[in-house]
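== Sequence and structure of one protein ==
=== Format: two labelled lines per protein ===
==== Data for this protein ====
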Amino acid sequence: MDAILQQISIITLPLLFAVTLHEAAHAWVADKKGDPTARLLGRISLNPWVHVDLFGTLLIPLLLFVTTGSLFGYAKPVPINALSLRRPKQDMAWVAAAGPGMNLLLALISGTIYRMLMMWSPHLYSAGGTETIGASLLTPVLLMLRFSVQINVVLMIFNMIPIPPLDGGRVLAGLLPERGALIVRRIEPYGMVLIVGLIFLDPLGLMQRLIAPLTHFVAGLIFGVSG
């Protein structure tokens, strides 16, 4: 039980930051592109409770992590009025890409700090190799930074799967000609069913053969190692 509580304490803060800044980035870019809807609702905020969905952001991820060791969750969607955007089709793609882009930035920042602390950590041990108070305090910080890289890379890659309502689906709709974009948008009412099936059933082995290896590869690049 103590081990589970320790794991939860390590993952909670990075997870909240990853989800909060992902959603805030959507809201900020939408506002810059001409739609103030999210800003007027207070969604350009670093306050996690503005973006958190009780079930999707907290209960479901923690339950899955404790029972299966995997993570899946969601935040409250940022409301966007596409008609208020200056160029609705193209700008919507930028708004969608902002969330995964923020996750990439967070992963890079976390990885950089992690590598810097790892270089500094040997100085926190005594001449006999005994762990000092500084070294013991550094351990949970390193674990949180490592998890921050991993969860942000997962969120970035997963959200860029080109199935609406995931961000990748909206980016794809913004890049395609109107006829192709219309086909993509028609998938959206069934998109969440497809996503859940992809995660839990994985009939094509996509998660195992592509998403998981790609996640490990990108995280490895950020950590500065090959795997």
